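Final report, Chapter 2: Outcomes

The project's central promise was a pipeline that accepts a single protein chain and returns its three-dimensional structure in a standardized token representation, suitable for archiving and comparison. That pipeline is now operational. To close this chapter, we reproduce one record exactly as it appears in the project archive, with the input sequence first and the structure output second.
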Amino acid sequence: MIIDSHCHLEYEPMASNLGEVIERAHNNNVKYLLSISTTNESYLRILEIVDKYKNVYGTYGIHPHETKDYKDLNDKDIIKKINLNKKIIGIGETGLDFYYDHSDRSTQKKIFIEHIKAAQTLDLPLIVHTRSAEEDTFQILKSEKKNKDFKVLIHCFTGSELFAHKLIDLGCYISASGVVTFKKSEKLANTFLSLPNDKILVETDSPYLSPEPLRGKPNEPSHIIHTVNFLSKIKNINPKEFAKITTSNFFKLFGQLN
């Protein structure tokens, strides 16, 4: 069994034929899907999806790109949204993206901390997006964990090996997307090779980042098998065994699913 720990099922082209997308995932042994919120609008669609499909779960959070429109968001607002449905099992995606700077950096940091406070209160995993912001992301996580510990999943990790191991030392889990399979991603592949297996999850981030050999095409949860096969090969582990490991890691982080 494989779990896609990060996808955006409410996005096109998946949203228009979601039943077929979920069936293809099931046929590739992808049994559970976690659809990740980026805005209030995306969250409303996720609530509809998790009610319709038994094997789909969701999160609530505001993507760092969008924080300019959510400057007044606080941890109490986040908690209220999460409590709308028992199938909302995580907080995010949240974090820092200094690559595009679509939102002011100070606003990104402020809203990131509000998400963290909600995670500390609810004891739910925080799904973190970080790009070109390694030091700031690390310092915020380190500082807030000193206040009160919380669970962290770094999604679609593409950072340095040093950053990865600093995150592992903080107790974070780290998720691999299709990017790790790209021909130009040799350093990233070596980083995942160096990580402990009991801290790795897998994801698609679909509809983005289709793995090789499907790069350039719209991504969907069934494609995650290519990422699992790639990682199992570099780690010299049977693909079914590696899938079991990443699934076990998901359950350790998010709890068992009904």
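Archive annotation: The CA atoms of residues 22 and 56 lie 9 Å apart.
This record, like all others produced under the grant, will remain available to the consortium after the project formally closes.
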